[in-house]
Specification:
The protein is mostly helical. The chain folds into 2 domains: about 180 residues, Growth Hormone, Chain: A (Up-down Bundle), CATH 1.20.1250.20; about 230 residues, MFS general substrate transporter like domains (Growth Hormone, Chain: A, Up-down Bundle). It is about 80% helix and about 0% strand. It has 18 helices and no strands. It is globular. The chain starts with a helix and ends with a helix. About 55% of the residues are buried. It holds the Pfam family MFS_1. It is a multi-pass membrane protein. Its main location: membrane.
């Protein structure tokens, strides 16, 4: 791997860590301090939390339209600058209205980051190394979540200082992206050729008979996870009477355990989508129930954080595989549709959680959202005629969809290359 490729990977990983881990998900970590300083009730806090997801949905569409015109470098730098601007405004916000606008702006950076990084990896990194590059860049989300915890330790109760520091990191990232991402119209590596790109052009229609299944399942998971992302730290502090340091530790554990979710692809190949999907949703529900029933137990809090981090990333991987199987001829749609639906569910879930907490308490809210995760288990993958059957270890992904999976990039998804490597290593060590 060349020096230029390594530099691009570092810049891309930092962009995803900044946009997802800091600009989007760190809100839940610092929410208790924000509520005291800005004066937010639970309903307002939930509504503001959904702003990041609204920003994502709009930005992903805008970025997809502009990246081919402006190039990967311009859009990637813009994503970092938007994240920096949003987090700078967050650090200076003195009212709920300003905070809501800043959260929406910062959250938009996640959507802006996706298409340019897909383009950059495809253009600047040789084809045989693109899978490894995507593996590292995709880990940025968990890295960002894990980093925000130690920052919260250092700036205990000082969320403005923390967000100001995050904004500085985003600015430095913008500079690194400017010197690392290739300019528009250049192709500095042995990436996709025009003929290869044409071969992957959309072949079938947008709507598929069973598309509603993955859409409903993704929305259900998005709703169920929103309560945890937004209110878990606050629940540990107010209901569990745990210290801010312990709440930060749980947050760090969420980020670290998210790497375990990278086993999703290997588990799907072995046990099928439906079995892994239902088991992982059960783990997500258990994480919520532990927080609802035993918020004052340190072991339960740590177990809840570990379960949530692993199950959230694993579920995104399951929906990725599900979508690509459904849209094997249109992998971009198969990758993007479930993730957009997850964000749509989080837009609904965050304010709903705030309303339930304000009127019925934390325990009722988390139990209700655990129930949503369990109900989502009723939605299963059903292959259409000609699609890959949902069976165990004997299945293989067709060559038609395997190539785009290696090359296509979508943040906050598990690293598919790492999935395969960990699975093979585990099988060798177990003698299977």
């Amino acid at each position: 791997m060349t020096h230029q490729e390594r530099r691009l990977i570092v810049a891309g990983t930092l962009l995803i860590g900044v946009s997802y881990g800091l600009a989007r998900f760190a809100y839940g970590l610092f929410l208790p301090s924000m509520r005291e300083d800005v004066g937010l009730n639970s309903t307002m806090a939930g509504a503001i939390g959904s702003g990041a997801y609204v920003g994502y949905c709009f930005a992903i569409v805008i970025s997809a339209l502009l990246v081919e015109r402006l190039g990967a470098r311009s859009m990637a730098v813009a994503a970092a600058l938007v994240a920096a601007t949003g987090m700078a405004i967050i650090s200076a916000s003195t009212s709920a209205l300003w905070l809501a606008g800043a959260i929406l702006l910062a959250g938009a950076s996640t959507g802006l980051a996706s298409p340019p990084m897909a383009e950059a990896v495809s253009r600047a990194i040789a084809t045989e190394r693109q899978g490894r590059a995507n593996t590292v860049v995709n880990a940025g989300t968990s890295l960002g979540v894990a980093i925000s915890g130690p920052v919260a330790f250092i700036a205990t109760g000082q969320w403005r200082i923390a967000y100001a520091a995050f904004a500085v990191i985003a600015l430095l990232n913008a500079v690194l992206l400017f010197v690392s991402v290739p300019r528009a119209g250049t192709s500095e590596a042995c990436g996709d050729t025009a003929s290869e790109t044409a071969g992957r052009r959309n072949l079938g229609g947008l709507w598929r008979a069973s598309a509603w299944r993955v859409m409903v399942a993704s929305v259900g998971m998005g709703i169920a996870s929103a309560a945890y992302w937004t209110f878990s730290s606050e629940a540990l502090l107010t209901q569990g009477q745990l210290s801010q340091a312990l709440a930060n530790s749980v947050w760090i554990l969420i980020g670290i355990s998210g790497l375990v979710g990278g086993l999703a692809g290997d588990l799907v190949n072995r046990f099928g989508i439906n079995g892994v999907h239902r088991a992982t949703l059960a783990a997500l529900a258990l994480a919520l129930l532990l927080l609802a029933l035993m918020p004052s137990s340190l072991s339960a809090a740590l177990g809840s954080g570990a379960l949530f981090g692993a199950s959230y990333i694993m579920l995104t991987g399951i929906y990725l595989v599900w979508g690509v199987r459904l849209y094997s001829d249109r992998p971009a749609i198969g990758l993007g549709l479930p993730f957009l639906m997850i964000a749509a569910g989080q837009i609904v879930g965050s304010p709903l959680a705030g309303y339930l907490i304000g009127h019925h308490g934390y325990a009722f809210c988390f139990i209700a959202f655990a129930s949503i995760a369990l109900v989502t288990m009723l939605i299963g993958y059903m292959p259409a005629r000609g699609e890959q059957a949902d069976v165990g270890s004997k299945t293989t992904v067709s060559s038609q969809s395997a190539t785009p999976l290696q090359r296509f990039y979508l943040p906050a998804m598990p690293p598919l290359g790492l999935i395969d490597k960990i699975g093979r290593l585990a099988r060798r060590r177990s003698g299977r």
